[in-house]
Amino acid sequence: MATFRYKALSAAGEALDGQMEAASADEVISRLQDQGHLPVEARRADQAGGEGLGALLKRKEFGSEQVLQFTQQLATLLGAGQPLDRALGILLELPDTPEARRVVERVRESVRSGTPLSTALEQQHGTFSRLYVNLVRAGEAGGNLHESLRRLAEYLERSAQLRSRVINALIYPVILVVLVLASVTFLLAFVVPQFQALFESMNAELPWYSTLVLQVSLLVRDGWWLVLMGTVAVAAWLASRMNNPSARRAIDARVLAWKFPGDLVAKLDTARLARTLGTLVRNGVPLLTALNLSRPVLSNRVLAEALEAVTEDVKTGSGLGYAMARQKCFPRLAVHMIQVGEESGELDAMLLKTADTFDQETANALDRLLAALVPALTVMMTLVVGAIMISVLLPIYDLTNSL
To answer: Which of 57, 122, 258, 261 is most enclosed, with most CB atoms within 10 A?
Structure first.
């Protein structure tokens, strides 16, 4: 007998965390299910938290795109009537990398030994998320595994599209910012110092802005290591602030309070939350359990805390829409759509519709942001470069006129 640590959700949606002596992780999961709980994780106590830095640096065997492809292909094969073992055997030949093939092979061997697919996926060292595993487990319990996998594939695909849309929208502005910084650094480090000797040889009296630019250029050229150390120090300070829960919450609250970025963050998180909740509820997962599983998809701490309060209200019998309205931080349109879904008895469909709506609103907001940001960065680059050149050329012009 070994000691296993487990995490589970009770029928009331409460998070359970404890230890149990058993012969295997499968026995722990079976006991938890017999007690009416939904197992989330079960692993040996002596293996918990032992990954260290090596696990962070190790390349993932199964990336997000491979998880999506695996889910789509498995759903298609099961929907075509293939047995699970046969479907996994077919999928074993499809991955491009040996690491990915090993993951599929481990899953197949576990299933062949009688382990449920959800447990086999859970044993893959975090390759498949808690949400993923629990959706599969719900499909197994309801006898519609292929349908659950199909919906899960749709969820993963839409989530990937949203993430890709955000990244693609930020690529061009990031390139512009890098170009601005590179251009300014080149001017200050190599161009402006060339005029220093000229001004000194002519005993020129420089205006304050020219003196300031020359001092900054000398700092960049001769004290670049100070600038580098200062940049690293600022980055480290910001990273520590982001890792501090109270500081991170204060930053998230400030971002959420700003008009445009706050609306964009709220729409992004609402789209993720609505799609996750809708997918879970549609697959037969109880609402309280779905709320607990959906919490990690929220990137904003204020919204995550609000969802915890929503969960507590739902436990006491409140409707989801009413509980979200009480928090006053979720978009009103989303709250109204969820209330309509509850009143009509089609909460899952309305949650997915809400996700589609806010996906589109997010895309429109990102397009507007990009349309405004690119000209703004271009103008900023022009002004900065122009100010540097004017601060150098104007004294030369004055000296020329005085000769």
So the answer is: 122
